[in-house]
Amino acid sequence: MRRRLLSPRRVATATLALALPAAAAAQATLPINVPLKCEDGITRTITRCATNARGGEVCAWREEKNGQLIVERFNVRGQMDGWLMMCQVPPATAAPAASTAPPAPAARPAAAPPPVTGPAAVPLNPPYLAGFPEVSTVRREIAGTDPADGLARQIATLNYLPRLITRMQMAPGRPANSTTPDEQRLMATYAAASAQLSQLYAKTATPAQVTAFQQAVGRYELDQAQSDKMFALLAPATQAEFRRINGGASAQAQARVDSTRRENEPARARPSTGNTSATPLRNDPGTVAARRCLELGGGTFECMGKGLTTGMLDLAGLGGVATALTAARPGVRMGGTYKSAGSLSLIFGEESVEIAGCGQLVQDGHSYTVTRRGTLLDVAIDNEATPITVTLGADGRLTGPATADVHGRIITGYEVYWVEKRNVSDNSVVPGSGHEERRPIYAPKTERCAFAGFRATAPVLSDTSLIGAIVGIAGGQADPAAQRSGTTEAPAGPRMAGSFAGGGLQLEFHPTAVVIDCGDAHVLRPYAVENLADRLRITLRNGDVPVALTVQGNGTLAGMGTIDVAGRVVTAVNDSGPVFAPKSARCPVGALTPQ
Fold first, then answer.
1. Dist CA 11 CA 21 (whole Å)
2. Residue-level pLDDT at 269
3. Which pLDDT score is estimated for 342?
4. Which residues neighbour 261 within 8 Å (Cβ) at sequence distance 6 or greater?
5. Within 13 Å of residue 388, how many CA atoms lie on the same side as its CB?
6. By C-alpha distance, which of 512, 536, 508, 511 is closest to 523?
């Protein structure tokens, strides 16, 4: 017998709380020119609705906060359900007391709302989005054995639909990792509705019931029968389009697998041809590090250096210490170079940001932290007792205070000293090697500089670590067959740092790429960080199947489903160099904690 997740009284309460927003969203008539108070602190006022060229209803609305206009938006009626469920109509005011004054003249009938023209009448891009279900349709068509079970199935469906959109972005001829505004809006609508339903359930359930409920949602996301019900909600034309794109993407992926297998076949066959010069693989720290470097695409020279360095540190008993000292703090970071209208520049790295061009101050690094505030990211730059906060907006620009006092240092002079080279054998001076060198003398200094606005002027570049050496190798040193496109640089903006692990999956983030480890398989892949309206999303660009993760408030990463990692391993080393063989593994994507 299926265990109920809610007591009868809690089921009734949750059902009532959830039914009210859904019923309001399903009404044909919306409150026009009535300010709606929403849970995210934004007041939304629907100004007009009309029928577009396709027979659907399109509405326009204003978004305000603290009495200030933020933006004006429009969308098809069905894609407004996500935020409508978070909003309430203010209660009606009491009727005024009876008065002897003459009645006011009758108000003129309200004029019909003007027709929506211009961008609102433009078909969705891509057109197949019109065949995706509205949130109210998911609520109506997806049912379960009891209200809580039905709710879990509905949330699982809302979580799964964005994956279909992501998969359909792999249409032949479409640029990789491209998302249209219409796709972003629809995925955000599904995500907002899913989050709202989950929050409403949690308000009437115990912690144990919430845990069981979340587990049920996860099971339904992987359940084939539930997936079939979800797929049936798509319009027939959209179903056909998905099958066409999905089939083509799967064929391309299989072709790449077959190509890799053919490329590695001669290497795997080489030891059986009588070549007895293959060197057995050792498992000392230096060899393991060099082997991993090669498997991720590094060149022989770079990987040999990595192996020697690791081996020497381990021999000296400093391997763990060196790793701890060089590991980046896990979390959200910034990357790229931002420049103001004047001479001021902010150059972001994993651990610090360099402030350049501020008066006479030398270019120095300052530690910083990144905090999410709704759709904005606040970057607090360490500046002695008074941090400087700049905010990354949706337009990709950084905005800070009009002016701020920057505490740094200036060069006040130079210390001149004489340097000579000496022979190691007898410590004698090498003739003609003497020369002067200068060491700058610094003094503290405070300069006032403008932080009002910055725009990105340079992308994020690969770091100076081993991974940076692999992705940024020049001169053909790396193995071309293992190069991962798109990992040498990334657009300026939010990035990730540090390692996260859970359920057999480990992610090691670097400025431009992430190392994905699953069992014995590992690959180097590009990734993207997006600050969406409802969450901070990380997308691992793992071949044809991107994997989405959400940064939680406690610093962990949360995902769903599974990830397939198709890498390679070194099986032997012979006269021609390392011998590789394909290595694949599958890991669940769940909660990943900082390491």
1. 16
2. 52
3. 86
4. 582
5. 24
6. 508
Distance separating alpha carbons of residues 142 and 233, to the nearest angstrom:
9
Q: How far is Cα 159 from Cα 83, in angstroms, rounded to an integer?
A: 16
Structure tokens at 341: 């209208």
398 within 8 A of 341, measured Cβ to Cβ: no
Q: What is the predicted pLDDT for the residue at 35?
A: 87
DSSP per-residue letters across 16-28 = HHHHHHHHHHH-S
pLDDT in tens, 250-285: 555 555 555 555 555 554 454 444 444 555 566 666
Distance, in Å, from the CA atom of 67 to the CA atom of 73, rounded to the nearest integer, reads 17
Q: How far apart are CA 17 and CA 226, in angstroms?
A: 25
509 vs 506: CA distance, rounded Å: 10
328 is written with which tokens? 């980046």
What pLDDT score was predicted for residue 400? 93
Q: What's the CA gap between 165 and 162, in Å, rounded?
A: 5
Q: 544 with 252: CB under 8 angstroms?
A: yes
C-alpha–C-alpha distance, residues 543 and 564, integer Å = 10
Nearest-10 crossing angle of helices 319-326, 300-315: 120
Which two three-digit tokens encode residue 559?
């995902």
Please, which residues have CB within 8 angstroms of residue 413's CB and are 6 or more apart in sequence? 440, 441
Q: Which residues of 280-310 are buried (b: 16+ CB within 10 A; e: fewer)?
A: eeeeebbbebbbbbbbbbbbeebbebbbebb
Residues of the chain with pLDDT under 70: 1-29, 52-56, 82, 91-122, 176-177, 248-287, 299-328, 463-487, 575-576
Question: What is the domain partition of the chain in residue ranges?
Answer: 8-90+114-234, 278-326+459-594, 331-457
